[in-house]
Structures are given as structure tokens and as C-alpha cells.
Amino acid sequence: MKILVAEDHLLLGKSVKRALVENNWTVDLAVDGAEALYFTECSQYDVIALDWMLPKLSGIELVTKLRMRGINTPIIMITAKDTVPDRVTGLTHGADDYLVKPFDMAELLARVQALYRRATHRGSNTIIVGELLLDSSAHSISVNHEVLELTGKEYDLLAALMCKAGALIHRDDLVGLLYSVNDEPGSNSLDVILNRVRKKLSASNVIIETIRGKGFILRVALTIPQ
Questions:
Q1: Which domains does the chain have, with CATH numbers?
Q2: Residue-wise over 9-30: b if at least 16 C-beta within 10 A, else e?
């Protein structure tokens, strides 16, 4: 689960990031609208949280640009503007939710989780690939009804592969999913996670195939790998 937070108040932005990280989110923190726009060009997000009064590019301008580009990521607008016309403006320009400052961190977390659940439930909340079953509502993946014990990054990686089973997912896209723009993952960090996931899939009929120099494909094997 990856979120972009755009907040020019540095202390508040860091507090929001810390709370989200503690709740298993991968977080990119932008301090102005231009930086946030750049982040959306470099990575994909499950949810975006924007302050209205951002420097360089306001939250409203940013939401408008993202929607015009066809980016449908759920967006929550965070602002001190609390009148009904302000809320209507935010929602009509493309925001999905609206949170007024000052706010309780628990409410922000609940609203972010609700936006994420709503987005993942637009289609079926289960995906089946061979003997694997992804249940997005329970945030779990099972093999023959046995739930796999996965870390947050292992779940995100395997869920991404399952959502595009049979199709190539480029290495850079997986790195962008698992790590924030500000992170500097080791050169083999993705491979370490992949190896752990492969071991946990060893008793299933599903394999992660490496396409050298390009990326990875999740496939159903004809026979269970030995």
C-alpha cells in the first residue's frame, strides 16, 4: 500500500508520514504541489493526500491536473478551509474525500483506509490464480485455503503480480511500488523479497518467472515445482 502525502507544513507532514508508516503504508512526502506532481510521474499510488494551500501548485490545481491526465487514484483533500462551498469546490474538482484541519490522526488513517478499500472493491475483492487466492478485504493471500504469512512488502509484491497474472511487470514498476521515491533500496532488495515470496509459493502450482533484463511474470505451472 503506497500513499503520496503533499503537505508544506514540515512538522505536520512528518507526523502524518510517521503515522502512516506505522500502519504499514509506504509513504512519499512532497512539500509543494510541483514536487507532488513530479512524484506522480515517477510512481503509482493507492491513495493521495493533499493539502489545499500548497506552494507552487495548489491542491485544487494538482487534483485538476491529475484527473485531466486520467489518474483516478483516490484523493483526500486536507485543508483549513471548512465552509460548505469550499468542500463542494474540492469535491467537484476531483477529490474523493475532504478532511478539515485540525484533525485527529486516527480519523485521517481511517479515511485513508476507507478510500483504499473502496478503490480495491470497485471490482471483485478476490483474485484467483491457480491455487492462490487474494482477498483484498482481508488483506490476505492463501494457498489451498492456508493463509500465507507475508510481510507488508511481500504482500504488495505478490498482490501486484496476481493482479496482472500472465503479464510482464517491469522491475522498475515493482521497485516503485515497494519503496518510496526518497528511499535508496539496495541493488538486490527486490530480489531478496522475490526469493522469500518464491519460497512461500514452493508448495503451490504458481511460479514467478524472471524475464532477464525486463521484469517478472506470475504463471500457473503445469506441474507443482519440486
A1: 2-120 (3.40.50.2300), 126-220 (1.10.10.10)
A2: eeebbeebbebbeeeebbbbbb
Annotate 24-84 with DSSP letters as a single string.
T-EEEEESSHHHHHHHHHH---SEEEEESS-SSS-HHHHHHHHHHTT----EEEEES--SH
Contact between 144 and 137 under an 8 Å Cβ cutoff? The reply is: no
Cell numbers given for 223: 506441474
Per-residue pLDDT of the chain (226 residues; tens, 9 = 90+): 889 999 999 999 999 999 999 988 999 999 999 999 999 988 888 899 999 889 999 989 999 999 888 888 899 998 887 777 777 777 778 888 988 888 899 999 999 988 887 776 655 578 888 889 988 878 889 998 899 999 989 998 998 898 888 888 888 888 888 888 767 666 678 999 999 999 999 988 899 999 988 899 998 876 544 4
State whether residue 3 is helix, strand or coil: strand
Residue 81 in contact with residue 60, Cβ under 8 Å?
no
Question: Rounded to an integer, what distance in angstroms lies between the CA atom of residue 135 and that of residue 27?
Answer: 23
Cell 530480489 sits on residue: 191
Question: Could you tell me the pTM of the whole model?
Answer: 0.66
- The letter for the amino acid at 51 is D
Provide the CA 140 distance to its chain's centre, in angstroms: 16
- C-alpha grid cell, residue 164: 496482472
Q: What are phi and psi of 97, to 5 degrees?
A: -150, 170
